[in-house]
């Protein structure tokens, strides 16, 4: 089997695993929608995705148009019922996990809470 056929088979399998996208949202729109569904605002989404707030607003406008949302609340309701939105995959490892995995010493003491609640 040639490398081309192996790659082609892999792509076919990957495409079969991808969730359906009946609204025809782009990959970026799917990511913006996922963050909106988690309750982030435009500035927070822009920071997460490394784009400008104005770009996030544009994506939200196109998402609203594609989903036929009447307002921001309606958009949030639609997004939270959509299957197949991307799930954040952190690209960093906590230092404690790294140390433990590679036998490099101790685990850090638990962090102290920023706020102490009184009864």
Strand tally is: 0
Helix fraction, binned, reads 40-55%
Radius of gyration: 20 Å
Compressed to H and E, one letter per element, the order equals HHHHHH
Number of helices: 6
By CATH, the architecture is named: Orthogonal Bundle
State the low-pLDDT regions, or none: 89-93
Structural class computed from helices and strand pairing: mainly alpha
Count of the separate structural domains? 1
The N- and C-terminal alpha carbons lie at a distance of 69 Å
What percent strand?
under 5%
Instruction: Look at the structure and give the mean pLDDT.
Output: 76
What CATH calls the topology is Arc Repressor Mutant, subunit A
Give your account of this protein's structure.
With 119 residues, the protein is mainly alpha-helical. It has one domain (3-91): Winged helix-like DNA-binding domain superfamily/Winged helix DNA-binding domain (Arc Repressor Mutant, subunit A, Orthogonal Bundle). Helices cover 55% and strands 0% of the residues. The protein is built from 6 helices and no strands. The protein has helices at residues 3-17, 27-37, 42-49, 53-67, 72-80, 95-101. Helix 2 (27-37) packs across helix 5 (72-80) and helix 3 (42-49) packs across helix 4. The protein is extended. The chain starts with a helix and ends in an 18-residue tail after the last helix. Mean pLDDT is 76; it is low at 89-93.
Question: TL;DR?
Answer:
Helix content is 55%, strand content 0%.
Topology:
Layout: H1 3-17, H2 27-37, H3 42-49, H4 53-67, H5 72-80, H6 95-101
């Amino acid at each position: 089997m040639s490398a081309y056929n192996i790659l082609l088979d892999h792509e076919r399998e990957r495409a079969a695993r991808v969730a359906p996208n009946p609204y025809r949202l782009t990959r970026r729109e799917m990511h913006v929608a996922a963050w909106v569904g988690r309750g982030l605002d435009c500035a927070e989404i822009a920071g997460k995705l490394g784009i400008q707030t104005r770009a996030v607003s544009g994506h939200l406008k196109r998402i609203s148009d594609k989903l036929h949302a009447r307002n921001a609340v309606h958009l949030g309701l639609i997004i939270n019922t959509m299957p197949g939105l991307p799930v954040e995959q952190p690209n960093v490892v906590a230092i404690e996990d790294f140390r433990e995995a590679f036998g490099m010493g101790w685990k850090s003491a638990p962090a102290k809470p920023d706020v102490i609640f009184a009864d």
